Amino acid sequence: MNALGKALLGFWGSSIGKKLIVAVTGVMLVGFLIAHMVGNLLIFQGRESLNDYGYFLHHFLHGWGIWIFRLGLLGAFALHLVATIALVRENRAARNTRYAYDATVQAPRSSRMMIWSGLTVLGFVIFHLLHFTVRIDPDLAKMKDPMDPSRHDVYGMVIAGFQSPIVVLFYIVAVSFFCTHLNHGISSLFQTLGLRSEKTRWVTGKIGIAVTLILWLGFISIPFLTSVNLLKDEGVPEKSAAHGSAVETISES
Ligand code: HEM
Description:
two-stranded antiparallel sheet; 2 strands
């Protein structure tokens, strides 16, 4: 094995190496979430803004951009998961050795919560990808932008996708669980990166809460406002048989 391979193996073999991997991939995933939330909020500017953004995502770098981005995201997600599982197993093994005769010793509550909320995130992401990216519902998959039928109607799809109260409830509960994971994750991240000391504990705690709260509000606002009819599709695609009238309805609003 060459020197680089040995160094990488040594890094992975050490507990601080894995903690760093969890922290750095965590920063990447939080970066993705902030960008995704900001992109989603374009829905409040109307159909054209959100659909332009969707079109850009699928076409930048001649369509390669989104695949490069997806590979990076998947890699970060996989490394985050595998390194976390390895750390949990190491901690458990160390605890079992130390407390071999003490059956009452359990994993800390917060770390058990992290595993369960992390699994909820995984379940949510799978559902969400099938819902809006793979679009297994043919009604959502075939929606076309009434102003430019050559492209997908992301705006109409999101609003139609949140017409079911069960789906809305699922999103709100899952995103809330997800945010508890994030809040704990962000504060551990500061610790791993050596940015949390007695002096900075207060600030880092508040940064974690602020980032989590902004993401929570930003993400749940869309399903919630759709469910109470405050966010609605003014230019319904079915009406766009009379294409011109749909465009007029939108440009008037
Ligand atoms: C609850 C509010 C959310 C809404 C309205 C929403 C909306 C969307 C939409 C419309 C797409 C498809 C974009 C397109 O292909 O044009 C998408 C993709 C995606 N969303 Fe969300 N999302 C939400 C929350 C989340 C959360 C909380 C996560 C992460 C845990 C997430 C992760 C993703 C991922 C990984 C993709 C796939 C990106 C790709 O195409 O590679 N979303 N979302």
